[in-house]
Specification:
Number of helices: 13
Shape: elongated
Oligomer: single chain
Strand content: 5-15%
Order of helices and strands: EHEHHEHEEHEHEHHHHHHH
Strand order of the largest sheet: 3-2-1-6-4-7-5
Distance between the termini: 59 Å
Helix content: 40-55%
Bound molecules: S-adenosyl-L-homocysteine
Length: about 300
């Protein structure tokens, strides 16, 4: 597979058809082909094509999504580009570093998204939180580049790294010291989002949010995930653990005594993936998967 096919350029709510054409042209020049648009303004393809001639291959593969989550669901890691310095402690990388890192990840088989915001207002904090990394392109004190210029710089950097010209710029330690179990694969963004949702729901069940605000807690957790480089078996384990904690809290709420609740054997089985289906169903339907010792115990409790 061509390494450049591992990259997706994602534009969130692009407004201007000429900008879109210039983005497509920039991608074509640098050899990137996969463009995803999230809720674009009404398309005027004539205007777009003014600046995007001979780019039919990129245009024909362009995909449109109704949410950023959908656009990122099958990627493994996403990089959100932002002109602004935020007040939160975002894990923010300079672009050259970020592109060096993600090129090395793509070379190892990951699908990576480079996410860009609206011309007028950029990406919201919530959208940036969907991305594992925040990326800043170094500028003068006037930090806001035109959307297509920002995409061009990013694609140029990808082109240089892929061509090997930029090798010296970064040596991504994280990629070279992989300590994951064999036969596992890197978690997709969709799986990570489902895990965050599962943890969030459990924390509500157990009343955790008395002590911390929801968005701060979720933001920090996401930073932890990002450093952890989670794999599918680890996602299953954590979903299993938090799913059970939530179920336990619900049983206690229903007045079932803790000593009547017995852990389920499948804990011991998590390495073999036995709990995967059950846990995924659990978070989606809210169904309980932990059982009291018997129905009789349940009634008598
Ligand atoms: N006025 C907006 C900027 C929008 S520019 C704001 O202040 O946020 C459109 C998009 O281009 C941004 O959302 C971002 O993805 C990208 N971009 C522009 N300048 C950038 C910079 N210096 N670093 C990283 N991304 C940048």
């Amino acid at each position: 597979m061509d390494i450049l096919d591992g990259f997706r350029i994602v534009l969130v709510e692009p407004q201007n058809p000429i900008n879109l054409g210039t983005v497509i042209r920039a991608m074509k020049n640098m050899g990137l082909r996969r463009l995803r648009l999230v809720n674009p303004a009404a398309m005027d393809l004539d205007k777009t094509q003014v600046s995007a001639h001979r780019t039919e291959d990129v245009l024909s593969q362009m995909e449109i999504y109704s949410s950023l989550d959908d656009a990122l669901s099958d990627v493994h890691v996403s990089y959100g580009f932002s002109a602004r310095h935020r007040t939160r402690t975002w894990a923010s990388l300079e672009m050259e570093h970020a592109i060096g890192l993600c090129t090395a990840e793509v070379a190892q088989g990951a699908r990576v998204a480079l996410v860009f915001g609206r011309e007028q207002s950029g990406l919201t904090n919530d959208e940036l939180m969907r991305c594992q990394y925040r990326v800043h392109i170094s500028t003068s004190e006037y930090t806001s580049l035109n959307l297509a210029q920002a995409v061009l710089l990013a694609c140029y950097s990808v082109h240089r790294h892929v061509a090997g010209i930029g090798d010296a710029i970064v040596a991504p330690d994280r990629v070279s010291c992989d300590n994951h179990a064999p036969k596992t694969r890197r978690a997709t963004q969709d799986e990570q989002t489902r895990l965050l949702k599962c943890i969030h729901e459990t924390l509500i069940e157990v009343g955790f949010y008395k002590a911390a605000t929801k968005s701060t807690a979720m933001h920090r957790l996401q930073n932890i995930f990002q450093r952890a480089d989670l794999h599918d078996d680890e996602i299953r384990l954590l979903m299993g653990m938090f799913g059970e904690i939530g179920n336990y809290a619900r049983l206690i709420d229903r007045g079932i005594r803790p000593e009547k609740i017995r852990p389920v054997d499948k804990y011991l089985d998590f390495d073999r993936g036995a709990i995967e289906e059950k846990k995924l169903q659990c978070t989606e339907t809210g169904e309980m998967s932990i059982r009291p010792t018997s129905d009789r115990d349940n009634k008598s409790a």
